[in-house]
Amino acid sequence: MGYKYGVWLVYNKDEFPTEHIGHFTIACYMEKDDASRLYSELINNYGKYQEIYTECINPITFEQNIYEDDDNDLYAWGYEGHILEHGMMTNFWSKIEESTKKYKCNFSHMIHTSICYSTSKLNILPYKMDENKIVKCSIELVDITSDDPLHWYIIS
User: Fold this and answer.
1) Which of 96, 103, 125, 133 matches a 20 to 30 Å C-alpha distance to 86?
2) How far apart are CA 122 and CA 124, in angstroms?
C-alpha cells in the first residue's frame, strides 16, 4: 500500500547517502488530486524552494507506523530538521500545516528526513555526522504508493 500520494521537500542526492529519494515529508496518505492541489498551493504561497537546518550530529530512530494511517511496518532512522525562513528558524512549519488542514492527509508534525528504511529493526544503524547542515529542498508532488521506498517517485 505504501503511503499513497504526498508532498515532499526533496533534496539533492549528494546531501545524504539514501537509496530512496531523499526528502522531508510534508504530507502523505493523500489522494492524487488532493496532493496535486496541496502541492500547487504550497508553491504559490511559499515558493518552490525551502531550506532546512538539519541536525546531523543527533540522528534519531523512528519506530514503525509513525503516521496516523501508517500500517507499513517500516522502521527508519534519520535526522530532525527545522525549516528556515530568511536564514532563521521560525514558525514557518505551522503555516504549512495550516495549508494541509483542508485536505485529508497525514501531516508530518516533526520535520525529519529518513536516511534508511527497513522492515527489520536490525538494519537500522544510525550514524552521527560531524556537523549539522543546511539543506536546500524543492517542494515536489510524489507517488509513494509502492511498499518499496526504492519505487517511490516524483510526479512533478
Assistant:
1) 103
2) 6
Please state the rounded mean pLDDT for residues 3-8. 93
| Number of domains forming the structure of the chain | 1
C-alpha closest to that of 155 among 45, 39, 67, 41: 39
Buried b (16+ CB within 10 A) or exposed e, 4-43: bbbbbbbbeeebbebebbbbbbbbbbbeeebbbbbbebbb
- Give the pLDDT band of residue 16 (cuts 50, 70, 90): very high
The CATH number that applies at residue 47 is: 3.90.1140
**Domain containing 70: what range?**
5-154
